[in-house]
Amino acid sequence: MMQTKTKVEANVQQAVPFFGITDMEASLRFYIDGLGFEMTNKWAPDGDGRVRWCWLQHGNAAIMLQEFRTSHKPEGRPGVGVTICFQCKDALTIYRECMARGIEAKRPFVGNGLWVTSVSDPDGYKLEFASPTDVPEETVFPEAQAET
Known about the structure:
Blueprint: E1 18-21, H1 24-34, E2 38-43, E3 53-58, E4 61-67, E5 83-87, H2 91-100, E6 109-111, E7 114-120, E8 126-132, H3 143-146
Parallel strand pairs: 1-4, 5-8
Antiparallel strand pairs: 2-3, 3-4, 6-7, 7-8
């Protein structure tokens, strides 16, 4: 007797990091002006236009930001120890764009067959941008090319 396998459609569609942050204005400057994210949704409940929560999109990737209420602010930087890895077509372009916009990005290197560069946001969340390459492992991006 032949059994038929039923294909089950995936229920989970996307994972979106949700960062608790201490200063929405600083974070929006970093993510939108610095990294090129676009705000596609927001919550500004107080009637003063101040964003308290937002959804930011960059290509097919997204993150959510929500400012801590004063009574719930953690001590120190809430993002320390958290890393989000973004898989890109070209991480070197991300690096160049960050540097051109005044965002301090780590000089790209090759690890695990990927060009990798990283930045830290105002709350200490680390964002890594990686793209496939056939360049030898441990190669470091030449500084002269970083400025082109």
